[in-house]
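Quick board copy: two proteins, each given as sequence then tokens.
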Amino acid sequence: MRGVDMERSSGNERVARTLDLMEQHYLVGRDKEIQFFVDRLHEGSDQGGIMNVYGTGGIGKSYLLHEFRRLAMKRNVQFLLLDCRVFPGNPVDFCHHVLRALRYPMQSILQSSDEGQLIEACLQALADRTLHGKMVLALDSFESFGEMEYWLREQFLAQLHPGIIVILAGRFKLQGAWLSSPGWRQLIHQMPLSDLNYDDAHLYLERFGIVKTDNIKQIWSRTKGHPLTLSLLVSTTLAGALPKETFADSEVFMQVVSTWLQEVPDPDMRELVEASAVLRSFNQDLLSRVLEKPVTSEQFMKLTSYSFVQRVERGWLLHDLLRDAIGADLRLRRPEYYHRIWKRCVLFYCDKMKQSAKQRTAAWENGEILFYIGNQFLQFLLYQQSISFSTEPLHPSNWAEAERYIERRRETARDAVLHYINRETGLQDEYLLTAKESLEVLNLIRMKELYELDPTCVKLIRNADGTIYGLMEIIPINEKTMNYLETGPISAAYFNHLTPSERSELMVPGHTKAGYFVKILDVYDFSDISMMQASLFTFISHILTAGFVVAAPTENPISFAICTSLGLEVVEGVTHSDYNGETVNRYYFMDTRGSKLHGYLSKMIAFFDLPEEDNVQSRREETQEHEAVKVSAAPEVLLSFREQEVARLLVAGYSNKEIASELCLSEATVKKHISNIFKKASVKNRVQLMNKLPASSLRA
């Protein structure tokens, strides 16, 4: 029997070694964390400290801890890895667990009932292991430690030998007393884990034998680099063909979602998570608005503390994959509720955009609204919120970099396929930009002459690493640039087509602008969604602040899809062939100057048909102001705030269409409000209403 046991033990060790080698082979994207750990192992024997490894579910914390264990063992450093989920939840059992893992003689300990002696024995046993070098104590799933966290910090770790490296790995960053105390704070090194970037995911897939670029990009688009999701989808892919159905509906992804939602057992908090999944990004005000009830500060703080919620520049958002899954589930399970939240978002940002137009300010909400009112293609391009990029004008200090970008683009130009997945239907489509088309755009970049015309014309786009991966030529329209626009390539045909009065409107002084001519939008890789999104955001920021924009992209389905998604219209009767002398290219324009902004918004949101939402909005406003407001000149007439707005414009002589445009409503909704106003005021037409409710009695 002893020989059998030894053989079984030897077999288990071989399996463990094989698994270790496989895990090591497929571990990618954690070089920085690994190097930090190795450096910590090489420090002095009394330099321990605490490493806080944290990240959302499925991000690879346990996987990284296993690599730390292998690295420690190679250097003859003992590594004690404990799973906090198996602790019963009291100091005695924790110490027993540690001592058993250390193979401490338990007989003498088990007979003792003194908790203090047990803790002292546990601390001493750990200290003894440092006599011959370093030791690592790693606690995985630390969020499960619960109420014992205070004891661990104040009673156990406070007395732990200083040479022991402690790793606390969990979903959440250490907070509270861990950071408020200067003593603890200086001992802690934060190690947040994020999703894999494209290059790391590419390497991971290649190691599994998945080498076709189209397959890699498709998997990347579906998984966003989330390690667990990537691993599960790889196993599905290796078992057969890449699934064609929408990823959010697949069993693979629901397995990942269930991992995340273990953090949210409370039904009220689940409601907040569901609402947040409909939104591109959120804050407390927006959530309260779309849910039609106050979201308390306590609820909001709890929501933003979940591991799958991240802070972005202007709010918070859920992990992209969780948004996909919950959004798909809501559309299927509660379609009316889903679209009601979506409509409320439209109204929220529509109001913000109108306010910024009145104040002549460039509010960030102007760009945000396009995620909600744009079509599915635009929503797909804008979906990923967590990208980091910056733009800067061309300048002598970055000129050489810009030239290197153009040279690199020319050397590496290739056909680019943009994979588009409709998030509602799950159907996929492809947009192709050939290398020839790409170079035709590149060959018309004129940095020097545009810089001399106006230094702000050329914009460079950098990624989070500071590398230039996009370039734009956007020319302000004014009397200083008009001659160039009338004679230069791409722009000449349009500006020579203008009537004298149209041209005169654009001839503003050189230090101002009447609008923009968008000449070139170029990115290093047109199939890279993050690059496309960065250039698109820069484009949007210009078209929604300028009032008047003309664009002249290549005659390609991608260009047409983007321009029409943004609400630009084709200019009739004028084209150009300047890209290659053969292909006829159209111009696109948008005019939101003055009151035309309301027409643009009305056109973009016509799809949503908002009458029901306006009633919801009216009820909300009525509740806030005690249900109704009396009109001063007619105390017996009670109108809601929305009805007052309609009545004010009605008695001022606005048509139904003009009221709809001004208030961002559909004409059907305006007619419904007018009918209610006539009924409440006991009148039959506008003239009678004007006699009963003079304009001065209605709030502006």
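And the next:
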Amino acid sequence: MAFGVGLGNPVKQVGLQVSANVLDLSEFDLFSLSAVLHRYIGSSTSVAIGGENILISDEAQSDGSASYYVVVSRGLTRCNTLLNRRTMTSKLHYSIGVGNGRFSKKSPLDEARGKGSRGTAVFGNVSYELFDAFNVVADWNGVNLNAGAAKTFLINDTTPVSLTLGLADLTDYSGDGVRLIGGLGVGFLF
């Protein structure tokens, strides 16, 4: 579970997103802090530099560690068939980046099972909007492949709610089998 805030204007200057993450839902006693600095550079392209788990409340209890990354994200808008006419945004988006930590290091369990210790350090995703704010997504996180679908509902003009369902660890490269994953996100604009 995470709680975050976004500050700034990534189109005019830069944007900063900071989140506090609950790492143990059974006890609510293990937390981390993550941050992303991002900038829109034009032509439906943005760049970001970030860190996940840059502060952990009790590193001895966590299986996570700090991970830092740089990523470029782009929406393809030059082709009319890839343009959402209602929102005038791209239906097809992709990101590619490089990072350390969780993007490049496998778990001790993967090592014990003979799956090696290193991931690719390169990560990326592709997302396509099938219809009104309903997207299918594929994601390589540096150590395994995930895929799913996401739908965003607008409660009002300033409150989007996103629901995501998917499958994680689709390859034998890491992990202990395919898992069902889900997420619920609520945004507030003020």
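Board note added afterward: The longest strand covers residues 31-42.
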